[in-house]
Amino acid sequence: MPAYKTGKKTAQYSLDFKLKAVEWSYETHRTVKSVAEALDIHPFMLSKWRKAYRGGEFGMVKSLKNKVKPDKAKDELSALKRRITELEEENDILKKWQRFQAEQRRKPTDS
C-alpha cells in the first residue's frame, strides 16, 4: 500500500530561531505559552526545544545557567534594599535618642 502525502509541509526552523525562542521563554516574566503564541508555534514544540537546550543538544547549556543569575541578583538587590530600610530606621531612632539626651542635659536640675 503506497504512503499518502497530505500536502502539509513541516516548517523547518533555524538553530538561531530556536535558541532565541528558548532564551526568550526562560525570561522570568514570560511563559512558554505566551512565547509560543508570539512566535506562532505550538507550545509543545517550544517545550521540546527547551528540553533539547537543557540536554545540550544546541550546544549552549552554559547560557541557561547565566539566565538564573539575574534572579539571584534581584534577590540580593531586594535584600540590600530591605537592609537599607532597616538601617535608616535605626539611624532615625539613634537621632531621636541623641535629641532626647541633649534636651535632658539642658533641663535645669531641681537640686
Q: How would you characterize this protein structure?
A:
By secondary structure, the protein is mainly α. It contains four helices and no strands. α1 crosses α3 (43-54) and α2 packs across α3. It is rod-shaped.
Main traits of this protein?
Transposase_8; mainly alpha; Homeodomain-like_sf; Transposase; 111 residues; 4 helices; single chain; coiled coil; rod-shaped
Q: What's this, in brief?
A:
The chain is 69% helix and 0% strand.
Number of helices: 4
Q: In terms of structural class, how would the helical and strand content be classed?
A: mainly alpha
The share of residues in extended strands comes to: under 5%
Shape: rod-shaped
Instruction: Tell me the radius of gyration.
Output: 30 Å
Helix content: 55-70%
Would you list the SSEs in sequence order as H and E?
Answer: HHHH
Largest sheet: none
